[in-house]
Amino acid sequence: VLNLVEGKLQVRKLRFVQGEGTMGIVGSWDTRSRPGAMQMRFSSKDFRLGRELLLSGEFTWVAQRREPFWRNWTGTLSSPAFYLKDAKGRAYRFADLSLPAESNEMVLTSRVRLGKALSGSAGLDLSGGAPKVKAKLHIAPVLLWEAQEISQLLPPWLKAAGRISGELTLKEGTLEDLPL
């Protein structure tokens, strides 16, 4: 149920269903004030992302919009815990997601923190021409067994122990330039 009360959009119950998967949204968006505050809570259970990935978890989006709202905003997406399930039914669990992001004239920048060991930044320029992307992921020195967000991604046949650290960098380029 959506209601507009004195310029404030109230999302009391918005639910998307995909077969067995669901995504529910509740919250509010103040459409009259400048900047306008937005606070939404997303609850997903096996909600399909793309072809083969299912998302489950509780997420919060807190943001301030500026004019025009689709080009200029600041917000944070967070979750205390969530998991992704692949097409083979393997579940990957993640804790403590924090993703503060900002859009200035369709140039998006963000920071990310996931669990104890992962942090990084990303940028996406949609301001004109071919979209450009860049990213950096930092793995803080940590014992591998303490970093479930990393160790669960390793193949089961790989036996690894000890400390892990490092950095991955995706230099700025167009989507066609990505090394996929």
Q: TL;DR of this structure?
A:
The protein is 2% helix and 66% strand. It has 180 residues and is mostly beta strands.
What's the alpha carbon Rg, rounded to whole Å? 19 Å
Main structural class: mainly beta
What's the total number of strands?
11
Mean pLDDT score: 88
| First-to-last CA distance | 41 Å
SS strand fraction: over 45%
Let me know the largest β-sheet: 11 strands, antiparallel
Shape: globular
Strand arrangement across the biggest beta sheet: 1-2-3-4-5-6-7-8-9-10-11
Number of helices: 1
Which blocks of ≥5 consecutive residues have pLDDT under 50? none
Q: What percent of the residues sit in helical stretches (DSSP H or I)?
A: under 10%
Element-level helix/strand string:
EEEEEEEEEEHE
